[in-house]
Sequence to fold (125 residues):
Amino acid sequence: MNEKLNDLQNDVKASAHKIWLAGLGAMSLAGEEGSKLFKSLVEKGEDFENREKPPVEAVKSTYEKTREAAGEFISRVEDGFNDKVAAALQKLGVPTRDELADLTNRFEALVTAFENLHKKDEEKA
Fold:
């Protein structure tokens, strides 16, 4: 029994370490891609500036598009990371927040029912 528990603990530790490494990899990728995007935008901005001075509205539009693209990229990285973590936890049999909430509610109902039966037994006695 202890050996099975130790094996399970080792598996959980190994999986948690892999999840940690996946997170670090995602952050590294986001940093690399963000740097590439920034360099590309600077180059395009320099080219545009050399051709003509951009009107204020064009600058605002470019800023908004850039901010939106960066936000979408970060959101995709976060979603991918969250999906990987959830899948790893599911493989390990770790219950979800909703499953734990449901189990808690069912347990509380069971305790209440037990207490009511106990009161009835005391009243009869």
